[in-house]
Design a protein that fits this description.
Length: 76
C-alpha cells in the first residue's frame, strides 16, 4: 500500500512540469512576437523616412522645373 501515496505526488509533479512547460512556451512565443513587431516597426520607420525624403525631393524638383519653364515661357 505504499504505492498509493506516491501516485498523487507523481501526478502532481507531472502537472507542475506540464504547467511550467506551457508557461515557458507561452513566454517564448510572446518574446518572438515582440521581436517580430520590433523588426517590423523599425523597417516601417525606415520606409516612411525614405518615402518622406522622396516626396520632398519630388516637390522641390517640380517647383524648380515649374519655375524654369515659367522663365523660359516669358523669355527671361
Amino acid at each position: 500500500m505504499k504505492g498509493q501515496p506516491a501516485a498523487p505526488a507523481s501526478i502532481q509533479r507531472r502537472v507542475r512540469r506540464l504547467a511550467l512547460l506551457i508557461g515557458l512556451s507561452a513566454v517564448a512565443i510572446v518574446l518572438v512576437i515582440l521581436g517580430l513587431l520590433t523588426v517590423h516597426t523599425l523597417r516601417y520607420s525606415e520606409l516612411l523616412h525614405n518615402v518622406t525624403t522622396a516626396s520632398e525631393f519630388n516637390q522641390d524638383f517640380k517647383s524648380t522645373i515649374d519655375q524654369k519653364m515659367y522663365y523660359y515661357v516669358i523669355g527671361s
